[in-house]
Amino acid sequence: MDKKFLEAQKQRLLLLKQQILNGGLLKSSEDLTVSSDDLPDEADLATSVINQQVTFNFRSRELRKLRLIEGALQRIEDKTYGYCLDCDEEIAKVRMQKQPWTCLCIVHAEEREREKQKFQQHF
After folding, report:
1. Domains with residue ranges and CATH for the chain
2. Rounded Cα gap, residues 93 and 21, in angstroms
3. Residue 45 half-sphere exposure, CB side, CA atoms within 13 Å?
4. What is the mean pLDDT of residues 87-109?
């Protein structure tokens, strides 16, 4: 990987990290509590539970992305950024530009996705 590309990716990753941290989604706990006013009415309680689940899913997704971004930043420092963790081959720049946090080449990413789908079908 050339230095110019790595520096651009690093800046992009840092910007994405800041967007997640400053977005407020990880700080807000508004939808994660059930008001005692919601308890008597089953419809209100159901709406509250659905809102909690949606908020939880968004937070989980953002936290996962944040961990992937931090991992990518660490790989830049370690000089292993841009190489597949499974095969050590260079990851295509197009893929790196679309998902700067990726750590797998397309072949291994697709392989893991197939394994994940097989696992989910059994449960």
Report:
1. 3-121 (1.20.120.910)
2. 26
3. 6
4. 96
